Structures are given as C-alpha cells and as structure tokens.
Amino acid sequence: MNTANAVAFFILGTVMQVLPQITSLGGAGLGAQETQMLWLQFMGLVTGGIGAGYLVRMGAREASMLVGRIALRRADAREQTAQGARASQAMPLGVRVTF
After folding, report:
1. What pLDDT is recorded for position 33?
2. Which of the chain's ends, N or C, has fewer CB atoms near its CB within 10 Å?
C-alpha cells in the first residue's frame, strides 16, 4: 500500500460511514435496509481504519526520522563547537611545545 491508496481507503471509509446517515428513511425494525446501513457503517469503519492506520504509521515514521536528523545535527554542532573551543585556547605562558 502507498500513501495515495491509504488516503483513498480513508476517504472511502468516511463516505461509507456518512452515507447511511444521509440516506436513512427512519423506519422501525431491522429490515433489509437497516441491515445494509449497519453493514456500510461497519465496513466503513474497517476500511477507514485501514487507511488511517497506514497514514498514522507513515506519519510516525517520518516524525522519528525527523527527530533523528535533528539529534544528529545537534550532536555534530556540539562536536564542532567543542573542537573550535579547543583550537582557540591559548597556550599558557612558559610552556614549550616540541615535536
């Protein structure tokens, strides 16, 4: 499944959830029409849940990669700052450096 399919599943599930409420005629009893409406609502929940689950999983994956990149950048910045601070430290007076 890809993102376009997940969005289509989510939209289809939403339409299947809303359709029985829009077209309900308000009859008493559990006839064929009420059974169809119940089936549409249930399958809409399943279909929308599949699409929403995939989208949430993809969003969580993107968010974790973003957090990882930010942490890596911060670690690199700290390291560069530490190296720059060490390089700019002056030698104390009276110290001889020999190689």
Report:
1. 76
2. C
